[in-house]
Every structure is written in structure tokens, then in C-alpha cells.
Amino acid sequence: MKIFKGKGVYGAAAAGKISVFKRRDIQVKRVKVDDTDAELLRLEAAKAEAISQLREIYERALKEVGEANAQIFDIHIMMIEDEDFNEAITGTITAQSVNAEYAVAAAADNFSQMFSAMEDSYMQARAADVKDISNRIIACLAKADCQSESGGEPVIICADDLAPSETVTLDKDKVLAFVTAHGSSFSHTAILARTMNIPAIIGLGDDFLREIKDGDMAVADGFTGEFILDPDEKTIAAAEEKRRADEEKRELLKKLKGKENITVDGTKISIFANIGSVDNIGSVLLNDADGIGLFRSEFLYLENSDYPTEEEQFKAYKRTLESMGGKKVIIRTLDIGADKQADYFKLDKEENPALGLRAIRLCLTRPDMFKTQLRALFRASAYGNLGIMFPMIANVSEVEAALELCEQVKEELRRDNIDFSENVELGIMIETPAAAIISDRLAPLVDFFSVGTNDLTQYTLACDRQNPKLEQFCDVHHEAILRLIETAAKNAHANNAWIGICGELAADTELTETFLRMGIDELSVSPSFVLRVREKVRSLDLSK
Ligand code: PEP
Ligand code: MG
Question: Which residue has its alpha carbon closest to ligand 1 atom 1?
């Protein structure tokens, strides 16, 4: 039994077998082979395996994200079967007497370069797909199958670190816990773990990586941050007991379902939920949230290997609005950049990506892409109670430009006789100190503010949220942050706007009273925190 200590970023304990997360970017070497026929047979077997994996993924995607989003996996199958692509691979194996891995990688390089050089942006984006399918075939050749996609019993996923795009594509039902050697508790991966209700530990260090292997038994305790390798029976039983106790607490909280978020002295607040995907709506409803306060729309983009079309986005937003049956749904426009990267955006490498061309800045420099999302949003607005908000605002001009694009989109929809709601609330995130300080100038332009405390903390305290070494310097209760929120609250109310908090701090029950006294109107938290915050609100008496 060996204990590693990290930081628990989402409570609950899990006991089970380890699965070491494998990326498919396996190093490919050029190796001379004598028997090219045997190499061709290996290739055929790997292709068959890759196709069967893709069929499975397609079926799952069909259920989870709908046909439009699932189609990409069908296209991947067709690409694997493509005659030209296959001739290039088999030609290299036989003409050069080399291994199949090398031949696949070489063909993929040629084909992706060819796609990248095309004029049409749709065809250009196919370059990433070629890379993706070739990585899959190479992984199958190396038998380095990605366990997360191949079924089997639920496991504890162990990795050096996990990118948000990797986390979202894992099959949630097969994950007992996320455990990483690196990572920070403010990262999107940690946020996703909370949203998905999965225990998570970060920062276990490199030693942990050296010691673990697939199939080893372990206990991951997201409360204490302890990861216990090869636990004895007593430790497994204790973890099971903790899990049961946590479930019981959740059961008790369920008694609060249907109850108001009201303090003893009668102050009311809305408690909304944060989601990253249409898949999370079930837990929003299960936890009785009053609405959705933050739909991180960028995950629709991260789940795809190409820009989601207007139609694909429309369907996802419509489904969300319809599922919420008239309750408020606030969808944040694309917040890509910094730690949220997708290859097909072809973003430049930046020295300081968190301070770079991200979120609203990127959208305003790519108005066509932005308008596609806005059209999808406004079209979906006919099916429920939609609010749209813009991330990373620092200037009045950015809000004006975003609102102007909304007007253009609405005008185009009117002209084309396409239905949309005239009552869509428009808001901005307060997540830069600049936005909080000039909130008196911003509030008259919008219907609401939503405070993004994750970024507001990083920018106010000059602490990179991705850097775990800074956690000791990053006091999330810092007076500067609370003063900025208070300033924004006063300015919102002075201008008939409402204000919510959607960063992780919204779920910090040590601050619930402070937020209520500031007059915060809404707190938006991970679905599994809704009832805990409700419990806290109902225990407070602000008259004292
Ligand atoms: C925030 O910054 O607090 C926020 C809610 O946005 P994100 O965590 O997605 O950057
Ligand atoms: Mg943010």
C-alpha cells in the first residue's frame, strides 16, 4: 500500500482499477521489414479495429449529442476506407519495405498537407481529420488502444494532465475518478470533473506516474486529495463507507428539492447551474436548479474536429432550452483560447495565451464565425427563455460591437422570416478587473452581469489559474476580488441590471452570506452544488 498526496478538487471517494490515460500521439519510427505481406495483414487488422472503434463511438455520440454531431465519426470511417489513402499506405509498405506505422504516418502527412493547401475552408479543416484517423490506426497497430473509448468496467483514469478536450470526450459512465500528476484546481478539467460529478485529484507529482500501471487497484479520495495505490481491504472498505456517506448526504439534500432559495428573514436568490454540454441537463434537472446560469458553449467546439455548423449549434441550444421548459438558460458565446484550444481554429502560438486573443476578442476578429453562433442562438431563442452573454469583456467598445452584431443577426432573421424571441436578455461576464471598475459604464448597455470569479481571480491577483504552484499565493477570498464584485453589484442595480456569479466561488458556502448582503441576484454553480448552496441560503438570517 502506497499513499500519494495531491489536491482534491472534487469530493467523493472511489475504489477501483487504474487505467493509465494514453494519448494517441505515439512516436512513429521508420523500420525496415522483410515480410511486407505480413505488414499488409497487420495494417488490415488495425484498420478493421479502428473502424469498429469508430462505429462504437458513432453510436454513443448519436445518443449523447445527436446525429449532426455524430456524423463526423461516420466520415472518419469513410476516410479510413478511402481508396487513394489506402493505395498511398500500401504503396509505401511494398515499395520501401517499411513498417505499416511509418507508411500510415507518411500518407497522413501528405494528405493533410494537401487538404491544408486547399482554398475551401471546409476542405482545409479535413487535415485535422486525416491526422485523427491516422493516429487511431497507428494506435491500433501499436495496440495502444484508448481504454476510455473501448468500453469495459469503470476505472480510475490516471494521467500526467488532461486537457479539457480530452476530458469531454471520455465516457463519463466509465470513469470512477480523475487523478493527475499535474494540473490546477482552477483549470477547466477540474471544473468539468465537478460538473460531471466525478471525484478528482490533481498534483500527485511525477513519482505517482512512475509507480502506476493499468489494472492496479487504487483508492482516490477527492475529499482529502489522497491516492492510495494497492490499498488493503480495510482502506477499500473505508473508501466505500465514505462514498456511501456522501451519497446519504446527497439523499438528505434531495429533501430540499422543490423548496425556495430563501433566507430565514425572507431574502430570495436564484440558484442556477453551470453546464458544458447538453448531456449535463439531466443533472441540472435532477438537482432542481432554477435555470442554467452558464452554458460554456465552447465545449460544443472542443468536442468537434471542425467548426460546428449553425444547424448543429441551433439543435444543441434548442434542445437545452426545450429541456429547461421556460426556465432561464444563459448561453455564453464562444470562449476559446488560453487552455481551451482546438486545432482547427489554427490559433497563433502566444507567449501569454491567458492574456491573448481569446473569447470575445477572437470572436470580434472573426465576425463570420461569431455571427454563425449568434444566428444559431437567436433562432433557438424561439424555443425557451434565452439569455446570451459575452466573455472576457474589458472595454465598452467590445460590448457595443457585440451588441451591434446581435442587431445585424436579428435584422437578417427578420428579413428571412425566421422566428426568434425579441426578449433575449443580453449580458456580459465580469471577469477582468477593468470590467468591474468600469461597470458603471457597462451596466447601462446590458440586462445583466455574470461574475466569472475564476478569471477575475487570476487577473486581479496576477496568478495564472493553470499553474498549481501559485495556489498558496492565490487567496480566492482576497478582499480585492470581493470589492470588485461589490462594485459591479452596485453599478448593476443602479442601472436596472441584475447580477449573478458563475465562477467557482459561487459555490463557496463560506461566502454565501457575503454575496447575499451584496445583493447578488443569482448564483450559478456545478449542478451537484445546487442543493448544498440552497441548504446554506435557507440557514442564513440576514436581519442579525
Ligand atoms: C470564470 O472565469 O469564472 C468563468 C466562469 O469562466 P471560465 O471558467 O469558463 O473561464
Ligand atoms: Mg472565464
Answer: 452
Amino acid at residue number 440: D
Which of the residues 76, 188, 363, 463 is marked catalytic?
A: 188
- Predicted confidence at residue 260, as pLDDT, reads 96
In the chain, CATH 3.50.30.10 covers: 2-22+148-243
* Stretch 151-175: mean pLDDT: 79
Give distance in angstroms: CA of 266 to centre of ligand 1. 30
Tens digits of residue pLDDT in 359-409: 999 999 999 999 999 999 999 999 999 999 999 999 999 999 999 999 999
- C-alpha–C-alpha distance, residues 318 and 314, integer Å: 6
Please tell me the number of the ligand nearest to residue 505's CA. 1
Please check whether residue 291 is in contact with residue 330, taking contact to mean a CB–CB distance below 8 angstroms. yes
2-22+148-243, what's its fold?
Glucose Oxidase; domain 1 (3.50.30)
Q: Roughly how many angstroms between the first and final C-alpha of the chain, as a whole number? A: 51
Please give the number of the atom of ligand 1 that sits closest to the Cα of 502: 5
478 labelled catalytic? no
Atom of ligand 1 nearest to the CA of 298: 9
Active site residue 182: no
- In CATH, the number for domain 269-539 is 3.20.20.60
Ligand 1 centroid to residue 154 C-alpha, Å: 29
d(CA 186, CA 466): 7
Query: Which CATH number fits the domain 36-141, given the four candidates 1.25.40.20, 1.10.274.10, 3.40.50.300, 3.30.70.100?
Result: 1.10.274.10
